[in-house]
From TrEMBL:
It catalyses: (6S)-5-formyl-5,6,7,8-tetrahydrofolate + ATP = (6R)-5,10-methenyltetrahydrofolate + ADP + phosphate. InterPro entries: FTHF_cligase, FTHF_cligase-like_sf, NagB/RpiA_transferase-like. Substrate binds at residue 56. This is 5-formyltetrahydrofolate cyclo-ligase. One of its GO terms (biological process) is folic acid-containing compound biosynthetic process. It holds the Pfam family 5-FTHF_cyc-lig. Keywords: ATP-binding, Ligase, Magnesium, Metal-binding, Nucleotide-binding.
Length: 192
C-alpha cells in the first residue's frame, strides 16, 4: 500500500527531527560546500533562503560566507493563503515571529520572486526527478506558479534536504512546482 502525502510527511518530519545536532551541523556544512561549488549558486546574486525549522538543513551560514551576495528570507502575508514576499536579510538577529513561529525580518528591501536568481527551498521529501513534498500550506507553489505558465522564467529552484528525505517517486499534483535541482549532504541531484 502506497503512503499518502500526510503519512509520508509525518514519517519524514520525524526522521529529520531525529537527527542529532552533530549530524545536523555536518549536513549543513556539506550542503553549503556543495552549493557553493554549483554554477547556479556561483552565478546568483539575489538568493532566497529560509529559516530552518523542524529539522530542516540550516543554510543561514551562507549569508556570512558570501557577503557579496544578497540573501532574502520569505515573509508570510497577512492574509491566510496568498504569496510569499522575500525581504533582504544580512544575518542579524530576528525578533519577530510569524503565525508559524518562524522568524522574519520586519524591515529591509523586498525582492519580487520574479527577480530572485535562485531560491533554496525547504522540503519534507523529494524524488530525483525534482518532485517536492512541502509542509502542505502551498506557499512556494502559489508564489512561483508563474513558472508553470512560463517555463524558465524567474529563479532556479533548488531543494535543500537531508539524504534520508529522498524517496523513489512522489505523487505530483498539477499545482506542484518542480525543482531544478536538490542538494543533500551526499549529492547534488540535477532534475528536469
Amino acid at each position: 500500500m502506497q503512503e499518502t502525502k500526510a503519512q509520508l510527511r509525518r514519517r519524514m518530519r520525524a526522521a529529520r527531527r531525529g537527527l542529532s545536532p552533530y549530524l545536523q551541523r555536518r549536513a549543513a556544512t556539506a550542503v553549503a560546500s556543495r552549493l557553493s561549488r554549483s554554477s547556479p549558486f556561483r552565478r546568483a546574486r539575489h538568493i532566497g533562503i529560509y529559516w530552518p525549522m523542524d529539522g530542516e538543513v540550516d543554510v543561514r551560514g551562507l549569508v556570512r560566507q558570501f557577503p557579496a551576495k544578497h540573501f532574502y528570507l520569505p515573509v508570510l502575508p497577512a492574509a491566510p493563503r496568498p504569496q510569499l514576499r522575500f525581504r533582504h536579510w544580512s544575518g542579524g538577529t530576528l525578533n519577530y515571529r510569524n503565525r508559524y513561529r518562524i522568524p522574519e525580518p520586519l524591515r529591509g528591501p523586498v525582492q519580487s520572486p520574479w527577480r530572485l536568481d535562485l531560491v533554496l527551498v525547504p522540503l519534507v521529501a523529494f524524488d530525483p526527478a525534482g518532485g517536492r513534498l512541502g509542509m502542505g500550506a502551498g506557499f512556494y507553489d502559489r508564489t512561483f506558479a508563474f513558472k508553470r505558465r512560463l517555463p524558465g522564467a524567474g529563479p532556479q529552484m533548488i531543494g535543500v534536504a537531508h539524504q534520508l528525505q529522498c524517496v523513489e517517486q512522489l505523487p505530483v499534483d498539477g499545482w506542484d512546482i518542480p525543482l531544478s535541482a536538490v542538494v543533500t549532504e551526499q549529492q547534488l541531484y540535477r532534475c528536469g
